[in-house]
Design goal:
The structure holds 3 protein chains of 3 kinds. Chain A is mainly alpha-helical. Chain A has 14 helices and no strands. Helix content of chain A is 74%, strand content 0%. Chain C is an alpha/beta fold. In chain C, 32% of the residues lie in helices and 24% in strands. Classes of the chains: A mainly alpha, B mainly alpha, C alpha/beta. The B-C interface holds B 165-171, 173-174, 177-178, 180-187, 310, 313, 321-322 and C 51-52, 70-72, 75, 81, 83, 87-92, 96, 99-102, 104-108.
Chain lengths: 355, 322, 494
């Protein structure tokens, strides 16, 4: 009963609130959903000519999935890596730097930009970790501060040193040399390499916590630091490790943004996918394989809702509202089910006790 | 650099810092109260945005700026109650609930506010206090603003007096410090936690409305410019003490004004300078958490009281009567 | 005020913490409630002070049945409870602690409250500065503060739950004087303790509880053996001490000293041989904890040298000590020991010798099943740490110890365990000792210290005040030293 409640209740809340919002915005509830699906994978799904859209959706899925994979690691280590946005951005910047500065043969260059992205994100993640372990700065605030630093660094580069030839504009840099792009499928943006890396990352994270001693130790550190220390686990080193793994994965997400999707540096290079990934991971309850469909669904919403404005005069932020309501109601649904279960248990206990 | 520094001491700049700080002042007091009771409301930034919109919409539609503030307070209060309900009743993680609400409120305010973008602003009318406002320096700095600015500073003093000079205020501190001891003394811990979280949310909401109806004027896409997050850091810097937190808000405002004043001298850094307060926040947090400093302070009770930031012991935890 | 508890039942799940308890406390008496840890005394007192509601039973005060739904109801009825860890707010000043929760006007009149506090304080000979933050008070002073507060609120029945844990001998003496004076004024005092000698010292009447039931009542004084028999069923015999064949030096401390605070005054030197058991006695917080942490490398002493197995370990990291087979088990089993949410199998993997990157879960599970059986842990290999009872958590912790162990440092090895588990724990520890492991254990249980130690180190206020040969000493001598009085006879540390 409570199991059913924990699914049905949130679902009902999501449906009710989205329908309510849409009626408030003056459209019927069906059209926006159809447009979201149509805009992301075509209507009917995967119709002819939808390849470009599907490609875009996959390329939005990649950074969300990569960031989610990283966040599963930090969450298991008991850390709120709100700094993930900054790690994505620094990955993008590092990749962009290589793409602009280095000219070698294409395969080597692609390898180098991905490596640079990983290193850029890793270092930025490490900084959050060092602030936390050595400076005592809560990772939420340290990470957040570094997010904003990374964000303004991007803007600085775009209007400063990396400004477009001729006009300085905040819209973005010139496109990078084509040799540095992540190899894509013909005319569409879908990069099998990027998708492969994201899948590999999720499988890797699953394996890390399922089958390795390192993952088990990370989990131990996340749940009880004093006990872990007494067991001989170098807790700070493991925390830093978690931030580095997460940062590296987020950094590659940045590479995918800069050299897969946008093919240049824009101010909003992270696409807010880091924060979105936090929602994804909370909804997936830290399970890597659940991340795959959920982040795809979130990517569909992100891509599909961009045409809402044009077609229905509905603000694209409807997509974000939908995602937020979904996660919040899932959390509260589960919380409610847990609360009921606890109550029933203590009620039956009391009965057994007095009987 | 020197010019910018000189500008800093200019009366008009100081007055503008005092006026511009009102929104953060309300929100910081709200978050301080909430955390003092033991509940972290991480949604501040989103919460302020949603209530900024609520305030603006009501003020715009009724053409009465004063109706905007209660509307915003209600919006902030509702968000805070969701955090309180999730953590107190359902034992959800406060940080998780707060973060999700931040994301949701941000998007919701954009969605609901799209038709209000760029509408003519309704502003709080200026009201210089006769007599007081003509005192040299202090007049323009303190008494030549509008009602909401005065109210912000009154709120700071009221929060301080309430917390440290009243029985109820002592109870507020008690439920965040050691709930089981408060319970033993007959203080209804969870009921008060709901109450103070809601009260804090209402103040955060008024802070949001102070943005859209006073400091920034009007509704745009992201009126708080991430300042809601700064509020959370200032509460830590303020050591969960209303007066210290208020000083934190003013210092932050001064830093921001200073950074913006530097822009004409360093135009290439125009995008970077306004975000200086964020790394500055990190530096400040490093300092207040610096172990050697904390140890040193332990030897000087007076300095310790001023400089140490000890969070309420039971912050972020649940309390259950068994 | 006379108080009667009639047939109180309180169950937590399957645990019958109170199983039909009836006690009568007469007006103006000091009534002892004696029993081992886990006998149900604390639960009963929580029922009486409104923290728990009883499943059934009656509380009768001066002939009237009362209902206690919360602690406020209790204090309103005149029942005040002093908790083992006094429920004060540490950052708040004494006066704020005093007034918080008291009825009165909205505005805080600290001046008026201060006058009342000082008046009460003077009456009972306490010396509390109203402006001092409670965190700077000793536990004894915090108790004094709470007692005054409860009296101020009109308590006529005062319950003290293990009040002598963690306070100095002076403060204890003062507390006893105060309690006797209160009883003389007509106050009913219930003194809850597991320390026989204290109850015998202070009380006029005693009720003994074991496993949730009242097993005996007596007017004091009675011969101590009679009380012991009520508590344990039969008088304990001191273990026949096997002659230890002392081996090589396993742990050597050479005049260690910390920079400030505990253990900073007098340097400590100690040499522990293989297979030796050192008991560590003292009031809680007298420096035992710091001492053990120095022995395992978690704290570095400012001066002096530490050697393990003849090898100099001064300044080395905790993990180096671990590698030298020094292991430390602190008192908080779920806080500093086990990890909530992880299964027994996962705990064994974390503690195991196998350092390979991939975990062979099949083998790990098999090993865990064997261990669960071998150590008679009530639970399965998939049980999480927090689902186990205290005794079983201790079993898991002992099962996690490495096979090779040079030095084992332990805090309160049997605290909160039932007798069966406690005996089992010592069986294991003594078996370790046979293999040559040196054991240092801190305990608040004098019997345990006397029964199992070869030597006993007594800590008092941050220094070692005595080093005793366990076979040549007795409860009284240790008791004196714990209270800070050097006996002046043999074996006193320099």
């Amino acid at each position: 009963m409570s199991r059913v409640n924990s699914v049905l209740l949130p679902a009902a809340v999501v449906v009710a609130s989205v329908v309510g919002l849409l009626l408030l915005a003056g459209t019927n509830p069906w059209d926006p959903l159809k447009i979201i699906v149509e805009g992301s994978i075509g209507w009917p799904p995967l119709e002819e000519g939808a390849a470009r859209k599907v490609g875009d959706t996959f390329m939005v899925w990649v950074p969300i999935a990569l960031a989610s994979a990283g966040l599963i690691v930090t969450f298991n280590a008991g850390m709120w890596n709100i700094g993930i946005e900054g790690q994505i951005i620094m990955g993008a910047i590092a990749s962009a730097w290589i793409a602009r500065e280095i000219s070698v043969s294409r395969p080597i260059l692609v390898f180098l930009v991905i490596l640079a992205g990983a290193v850029g994100g890793l270092l930025w993640g490490l900084l959050v970790g060092v602030l936390r372990t050595a400076g005592g700065v809560n990772e939420i605030f340290g990470g957040l501060g570094l997010d904003f630093v990374a964000l303004s660094l991007t803007t600085y580069l775009i209007i400063g040193p990396w400004a477009r030839s001729g006009v300085a504009s905040t819209s973005g840099t010139d496109p990078f040399p084509e040799d540095s792009y992540l190899p894509a499928l013909g005319a569409i943006k879908l990069s099998p390499l990027a998708v492969g890396i994201a899948l590999l990352a999720l499988v890797g994270v699953w394996l890390l916590f399922k089958g390795t001693l390192y993952g088990l130790k990370l989990k131990a550190v996340g749940r009880n630091r004093p006990s872990s220390f007494l067991l001989g686990i170098p807790t700070n080193r493991y925390l830093l490790g978690a931030f580095m793994i997460c940062g590296a994965l987020a950094g590659v997400a940045g590479t995918s943004q800069a050299l897969g999707f946008h093919q240049r540096l824009i101010p909003a290079i992270s696409g807010n996918y880091g924060f979105l990934a936090i929602l994804v991971v909370l909804l997936a309850r830290f399970r890597p394989f659940l991340v795959i469909p959920i982040s795809f669904f979130f990517a569909m919403i992100a891509v599909g809702s961009s045409s809402l404005q044009l077609r229905l005069d509905v603000n694209p932020s409807l997509g974000g509202v939908l995602q937020g309501v979904l996660v919040l109601s899932a959390m509260f649904g589960l919380g409610w089910a847990g609360y009921r279960a606890l109550k029933e248990m203590s009620a039956s206990e009391a009965k057994a006790g007095s009987g | 650099m020197i010019n910018a520094l000189v500008d800093m001491f200019d009366t008009a700049t100081i007055a503008s810092i005092v006026a511009g700080a009102s929104a953060l002042m309300f929100a910081t007091m709200g978050e301080t109260i909430s955390e003092k009771a033991g509940v972290i409301n991480l949604s501040v930034d989103g919460s302020m945005m949603l209530s900024a919109l609520a305030g603006f919409v009501v003020a715009f539609e009724t053409d009465n700026v004063w109706l905007g503030f209660p509307a915003a307070a209600v919006a902030g209060m509702i968000v805070a109650l969701v955090v309180a309900f999730g953590s107190i009743k359902l034992s959800l993680n406060q940080v998780a609930v707060g973060f999700v609400l931040f994301a949701l409120c941000t998007e919701l305010s954009r969605f609901l506010g799209q038709s209000y973008v760029g509408r003519p602003p309704v502003g709080v009318p200026a009201w210089d206090i006769p007599g007081l406002s003509s005192i040299p320096f202090f007049g323009p700095v303190l008494f030549d603003h509008n009602l909401m600015v005065y109210l912000a500073y009154i709120t700071v003093i009221a929060t301080y007096l309430f917390m440290y000079r009243t029985r109820r205020g002592l109870e507020l501190q008690g439920i965040g410090e050691r709930p089981e001891a408060a319970h033993a003394r007959g203080v209804p811990v969870n009921r008060l936690r709901y109450f103070y979280t809601a009260l804090g949310g209402a103040l955060i909401g008024i802070g949001g409305a102070a943005f859209s109806l006073d400091v920034i004027l009007g509704w745009s896409d992201r009126p708080t410019r991430n300042l809601g997050w700064i509020v959370l850091a200032i509460v830590i810097f303020g050591g969960w003490h209303p007066l210290r937190a208020a000083i934190g808000v003013l210092l932050f405002g001064a830093l921001q004004a200073y950074a913006i004043n530097l822009v004409p001298e360093y135009p290439s850094l125009s995008q970077v300078l306004p975000s200086i307060p964020f790394p500055a926040m990190i530096v400040v947090l490093v300092i207040v958490n610096w172990k050697a400093l904390l140890k040193w302070l332990d030897r000087y009770p007076f300095l310790r009281a001023i400089l140490r930031s000890d969070p309420p012991t039971a912050i972020g935890t649940r309390f259950e009567v068994n | 005020m006379s108080l009667e508890l009639r047939d109180i039942h309180k169950h937590f799940g399957p645990v019958r913490a109170n199983d039909g308890i009836s006690i009568t406390v007469e007006t103006g008496t000091l009534h002892g409630l004696l029993g081992e840890n886990g006998a149900g005394k604390s639960t009963l007192m929580k029922v009486l002070s409104g923290f728990h509601s009883a499943d059934s039973g009656e509380i009768i005060l001066d002939g009237k049945t009362i209902k206690l739904a919360s602690p406020v109801d209790a204090i309103a009825a005149g029942i005040g409870m002093l908790h083992q860890d006094p429920l004060v707010f540490l950052p708040f000043s004494v006066i704020d602690n005093f007034v918080l929760g008291s009825p009165g006007e909205r505005r805080l009149d600290r001046a008026a409250a201060t006058r009342e506090l000082n008046e009460l304080s003077e009456r009972y000979g306490f010396n509390l500065d109203p402006e001092t933050p409670a965190r700077l008070l000793t536990v004894g002073e915090r108790q004094q503060l709470e007692i005054l507060r409860l009296l101020w609120l009109g308590a006529r029945v005062l319950i003290l739950d293990e009040p002598t844990t963690g306070i100095s001998a002076d403060q204890r003496a003062k507390l006893f004087v105060t309690l006797k004076a209160l009883a003389k004024e007509g106050m009913s005092v219930i003194f809850v303790s597991h320390k026989l000698e204290e109850v015998a010292d202070l009380c006029e009447r005693v009720t003994v509880m074991t496993r949730g039931k009242v097993v005996g009542e007596a007017e004091l004084p009675v011969p101590p053996e009679q009380l012991v028999e009520m508590m344990f069923g039969q008088a304990i015999e001191i273990r026949d001490r096997d002659q230890v064949s002392l081996g090589s030096s396993h742990l050597a401390l050479d005049s260690i000293r910390t920079a400030t605070g505990l253990l900073s005054e007098e340097p400590i030197s100690l040499e522990v041989q293989a297979g030796e058991v050192i008991g560590i006695a003292g009031m809680e917080g007298s420096g035992q904890d710091t001492f053990l942490r120095i022995c395992c490398g978690m704290r570095a002493p400012k001066e002096g040298r530490v050697a393990v197995g003849g090898q100099d370990m001064t300044g080395k990291h905790y993990r180096d000590y671990l590698a030298a087979d020094v292991k430390y088990l602190p008192a908080g089993r779920l806080e500093e020991g086990l990890i909530e949410g992880l299964t027994i199998t996962e705990h064994f993997v974390l503690a195991g010798e196998d350092r390979s990157f991939f975990v062979d879960w099949g083998a790990a599970r098999k090993r865990a099943v064997e261990q669960v059986e071998h150590y008679t842990i009530k639970g399965t290999e998939a049980s999480t740490a927090e689902s186990l009872s205290g005794g079983n958590q201790q079993r898991v912790l002992l099962a996690m110890l490495p096979a090779e162990l040079t030095v084992l440092l332990m805090e309160h090895p049997t605290r909160g365990l039932d007798i069966e588990s406690a005996d089992w724990v010592w069986e294991q520890l003594l078996a370790r000792r046979e293999q040559g492991t040196s054991i240092l254990f801190a305990s608040a249980d004098l019997d345990e210290l006397l029964r199992y130690s070869d030597r006993i180190l007594v800590f008092f206020s941050g220094r070692v005040i005595g080093e005793l040969d366990a076979s040549a000493t007795n409860v009284d001598e240790i008791g004196l030293l714990i209270g800070g009085r050097r006996s002046g006879t043999e074996g006193v540390a320099s």
